[in-house]
Design goal:
Helix content: 40-55%
Distance between the termini: 33 Å
Radius of gyration: 20 Å
Number of helices: 10
CATH class of the largest domain: Alpha Beta
Number of domains: 2
CATH architecture of the largest domain: 3-Layer(aba) Sandwich
CATH topology of the largest domain: Rossmann fold
Oligomer: single chain
CATH superfamily of the largest domain: BRCT domain
Number of strands: 6
Largest sheet: 4 strands, parallel
Length: 229
């Protein structure tokens, strides 16, 4: 599709009352051909949009009028099964979360994470958490002091895993595993349980809009692949 035709479509959509936005915070409806793991799709879910099939857009353009989006629900049972969540519950979950599902979480990434640090940072922040690169320095300890102070003021119940665990997004490559010992050491020094996890942990939470235990996503030394990423 050329940029001219895209502009023409956007103009036609605007004329019938649909504005295409790039900022997930302004999104009221999310149209997609299927469940996607793109940054835009995943970020938009945190803002509780009505999720529709792209057939909604096609039909509105074809009819030249704004149709009822509820008549065009996105259906992708195969992806729901693959990622273990029910798309119909995501919007309601997001409404309850109010962009705070990961509030209190400080999630770290190894450098050169596949998919890019900026993408994961935006997903974490869209859900109320903080995301930082981990380079083996003591930044984790510095942030934890503020975290403990914040938790004391904002959360009296002991039900948030962020209070006790430190998370590192990584892959099981030799390159990434080199920082694992340092991460574990720093986490334990500040009395946190180190959790080194696949990026699927974050993506699955963001897509389902529900917290998940890190156990099934955790990486161990036995999983390290004999290859460089």
């Amino acid at each position: 599709m050329t940029s001219d035709s895209l502009t023409s479509k956007q103009r036609a959509l605007r004329d019938i009352g649909i504005i295409v936005v790039q900022d997930a915070r302004r999104c009221t409806h999310l149209a997609a051909p299927s469940i996607l793991r793109t940054t835009k799709f995943v970020n938009a879910l945190a803002y509780a949009p009505t999720i529709v099939s792209t057939e909604f857009i096609t039909s509105c353009l074809k009819n030249g009028e704004l149709l009822d989006p509820l008549d065009f629900p996105l259906e992708d049972k195969e992806a729901e099964k693959k990622y273990s969540f029910d798309l119909s519950s995501v919007t309601e979950n997001a409404k309850k979360n109010k962009n705070k599902m990961l509030q209190g979480y400080r999630i770290y990434c190894v450098e050169d994470i596949r998919g890019g640090f900026d993408a994961f940072k935006s997903i974490v922040e869209a859900n109320g958490g903080e995301c930082m690169l981990f380079r083996g320095r003591l930044a984790l300890a510095n942030h934890s002091r503020r975290e403990e102070s914040d938790d004391e003021e904002s959360e009296s119940e002991d039900d948030n895993p962020a209070r006790h665990e430190a998370f590192l997004l990584s892959s099981a490559t030799i390159k990434h595993s080199r920082v694992w010992p340092r991460f574990r050491q720093v986490a334990r020094d500040i009395h946190k349980t180190p959790r080194i996890v696949r990026v699927d942990w974050l993506l699955d939470m963001a897509m389902s809009q529900s917290r998940r235990a890190a156990d099934e996503y955790e990486l161990t030394d036995e999983m390290i692949e004999d290859m460089e990423e």
